[in-house]
Task: inverse folding
């Protein structure tokens, strides 16, 4: 081989190397592209999974909060049911308590001390039983200021003095509360 042929052969080899080098670079670029596409797919899949996880967490927290509210509401409703059930019984028993008070008033006028003591014993036991269930008498006296929120004015009469204007003159019927709720307003006479 002549020198010229050798040089051409070397150039061909070099050109072939360039072609091979180019092919190798193309393969690497294609591989990198595929790899970057796979990575993007993985990243986008990871992002999607994160978003779904976040949504599911939010749903769980909302559901948990709704359940807690439900428990509180049903507990409150149950307690209110017990109170109102007791309230109906208490309201039904108030006239019996009033009758005991009237009986005590009349028996105190008579000479039957043993009868008075027996009725008083029964009345006190009845009152204590109602008190243990939450019944409280609303304490009012003649001369207290009239409060329309608490008292029920059945009539107005001329006040015996200027100090008694707008004040309670007489208590006709006692009032009672069950817990913090008034179940019977006291009936009063107010001075005007």
Result:
């Amino acid at each position: 081989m002549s020198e010229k042929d050798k040089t051409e052969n070397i150039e061909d080899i070099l050109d072939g190397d360039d072609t091979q080098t180019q092919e190798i670079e193309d393969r690497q670029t294609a591989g990198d592209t595929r790899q970057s596409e796979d990575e993007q797919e993985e990243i986008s899949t990871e992002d999607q999974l994160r978003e779904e996880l976040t949504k599911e967490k939010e749903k769980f927290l909302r559901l948990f909060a709704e359940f807690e509210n439900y428990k509180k509401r049903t507990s409150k409703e149950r307690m209110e049911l017990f109170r109102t059930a007791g309230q109906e019984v208490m309201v039904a028993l108030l006239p019996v308590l009033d009758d005991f008070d009237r009986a005590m008033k009349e028996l105190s006028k008579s000479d039957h001390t043993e009868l008075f003591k027996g009725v008083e014993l029964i009345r006190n036991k009845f009152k204590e039983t109602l008190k243990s269930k939450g019944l409280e008498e609303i304490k009012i006296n003649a001369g207290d200021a009239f409060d329309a929120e608490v008292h029920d004015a059945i009539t107005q009469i001329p006040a015996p003095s200027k100090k008694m204007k707008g004040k309670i003159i007489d208590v006709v019927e006692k009032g009672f509360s069950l817990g913090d709720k008034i179940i019977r307003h006291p009936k009063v006479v107010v001075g005007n």
User: Anything to note?
Assistant: The CA atoms of residues 165 and 192 lie 5 Å apart. The longest strand covers residues 152-157. The chain has a mean pLDDT of 83. The helical segments are 3-109, 113-132.
